[in-house]
Write a structure and sequence with these properties.
By secondary structure, the chain is mostly helical. It has a domain of 47 residues.
């Protein structure tokens, strides 16, 4: 039997819980969490890629500038 205590925010399991019910609860909780973490990871990867592309462009611009312009000062 499953009892929900909304006051304490707890779920109490007593006796035998049917396996399909347990699997359904696990899937209902874990699948949205996994989708959320995948979305967050993709957003962070895209942001990191944008920042690294900008840095790479600045480094190439610094390396490929005309030799008379080189004074080895940071940009």
């Amino acid at each position: 039997m499953v009892r929900f205590d909304l006051q304490a925010g707890a779920i109490e399991l007593s006796g035998r819980v049917p396996l399909p019910l347990l699997l359904a609860v696990v899937l209902l909780v874990s699948v949205p969490l996994a989708i959320g973490w995948i979305w967050v990871a993709r957003q962070l990867r895209a942001k990191a890629r944008t920042l690294l592309d900008g840095l790479r462009i600045r480094v190439w611009q610094w390396l490929l500038r005309h030799p008379t312009d080189r004074d080895d000062r940071p940009c």
